[in-house]
User: Fold this.
Amino acid sequence: MRPDRLFAAVVTAVFLLAAPAAALVGDTDGAFGLDGTLRTTAFGLRNYDNPNFFGPSNKYDGLSQSSLRLIAAGSPADWISFQIHGLQELRFTSTPVLAGQPPPLMVPVRRYRVFQDQYNWADEPDTVASISPEWYNFTLSVGPLDITIGRQAITLGKAYLWNPLDVFSPFDPQQFDRDYKPGADAARVTFSIGEFSGVEVIGAGGREILDVPLYKDTGRSGCDWYGSAVLGRAYTTVKGIDISLQGGKVYGGTMLGGGAVSEIGLGIQVRGEAAYIWTLDPRPLPAPLPPEDFVPDSLQAVLSIGRKWENSLDVEAEYYFNGAGETENNLAVGRFRQLTGGTQQWGRNYAGLTASYEFLPILTGRIVGILSMTDRAGLIQPFFTWSLSDESDVGFGAVAALGRRPTNPPVGGPTPPMLRSEYGSYSSSFFVQFKTYF
Assistant:
């Protein structure tokens, strides 16, 4: 479908579906409730000239992702609560390969999953329809002790664009929809020592996924030591500074890291996070990639500074060092590690800036700018959210991808395209998103 027709169809659906909604059954904040969310995102891509990626004379492509999430949750007693999320997804792309697609629609292999319980009831080169139990867990609470067991969203660290401490499926820095995070099959035990202090242990099962063909999961379920995690964490507040330390076994290695958040005056907040991973058992990358370690010894660190004004303007600036990324001459290695969940970026050094502002009570704007200093490439991503009702939103945005494009050898020639910059490999795009809650 042509991008302009796809865009028009989604906008029409927005106005037809924007109506007040109510929970299906009960109340998820009470003993039992059933509700959910429906959302759809459509991208129109403006391709650059590279017939090896897009085919000859293919200037435009379309992408779409639609999801229905049904949520059953509740707390039958003060000491127990539960949540179950069933997810139905439909993805469509007219782009023949991953190159050129915006990262929010590029799904990396999920680490820390014991059960590969996604069922694809339609799986074609351009369309994938799947159903899966995305979250399913229960929590036992006894005084200061909370124990959560099952597939759950786990977020560690407080940086925004990049999160060195967050080993459990961190959000892509370009991801504009952050309502729900992918779950990990884990047990989490938290003991609160005070209002802002505590210790916790997180154990997550998983398996080695190095043997994925064409960057796709093999569908096998299982658990092994290489792909699992046992992580200890402590957090507290000292003289107004939030401090956290964590360490233990993670996917393919051992980790030691920490973070701090503090306000330095004039409403300016500073965040810092760093983590170092030591390879547990070296595994070479698959051919034709160079024989480097799948999980290398590496340092990842981020420094962030930001301020929020009373007029709702919120500005954040971050610097990110990614030791698991690669240099300009070997970006394919960084790309592979990103697609298999090992790093958030391809390269080594990045700077990012985000700003958001509430123009009206029903209209909010946000812009993200990222510069890759490794390969001198970047992107600019504006995004606007318009609240149609208390339960429905529509968003409009664009992605301007800047950088050197991949090489373009003759079609069918012996030399494959070479990646010359991370963001230069993506097509520029515009998109629209509609979501409603019920």
